[in-house]
Design a protein that fits this description.
CATH topology: Aminopeptidase
Number of domains: 1
Structural class: alpha+beta
Number of strands: 5
Largest sheet: 5 strands, mixed
CATH superfamily: Gcn5-related N-acetyltransferase (GNAT)
Number of helices: 4
Helix content: 25-40%
CATH class: Alpha Beta
Mean pLDDT: 89
Radius of gyration: 16 Å
């Protein structure tokens, strides 16, 4: 499949099922985790629906469509950088269906997002985190011009989502 046959668009409510499924598969493939479906669905839906309190949007999904079928997705969120006086867009929940990998689908998603970021005067960069042993994904990201930031991501999760594995 050529990149020219790939449509990239903002995700809509009709894509929620695909996004939930993609996230389930990604967690299983990359971390061996089975995510709690209810928590995951609520998390995906929260990107589409503002809270009653009117809080800011949490993020945005882009999807790649081939012949009317959603075959890939990514979510991006934003973080303010006081050092750079602008927003950094974080790529998250990146997933491409196995049959469509190595065919330019993620490249098309990334290039679309990068072009949108360049046109938005407030965006100073793109970032993502990748599982440390996922060398194939790391090579893909390097091939698109990304490089290691030199940071190590550390965390303290204050609330555990329900999953069937330790981690």
């Amino acid at each position: 499949m050529e990149a020219s046959g790939i449509e990239v668009r903002g995700a809509c409510e009709a894509d929620i099922e695909s996004l939930v499924e993609f996230n389930q598969r990604m967690a299983a493939e990359t971390e061996g985790k089975e995510l709690d479906s209810g928590t995951l669905r609520a998390g995906v839906e929260a990107v589409f629906f503002e809270s009653v309190a009117g809080e800011a949007r949490k993020g945005r999904y882009l999807v790649a469509v081939i012949n009317g079928r959603v075959v890939a997705a990514l979510m991006h969120t934003w973080e303010w950088s006081d050092w750079r006086n602008g927003f950094v867009w974080w790529l998250q929940s990146v997933y491409v269906e196995p049959d469509f990998r190595r065919r330019g689908v993620f490249r098309r998603l990334y290039e679309t997002l990068r072009e949108e970021a360049r046109q938005d005067g407030g965006v100073v960069g793109l970032r993502l985190y990748v599982e440390e042993h996922n060398r194939i994904a790391q090579a893909t990201y390097r091939g698109l011009g990304m490089e290691s930031s030199g940071y190590v991501v550390m965390e303290e999760m204050l609330r555990e989502s329900s999953d069937s594995s330790e981690g």
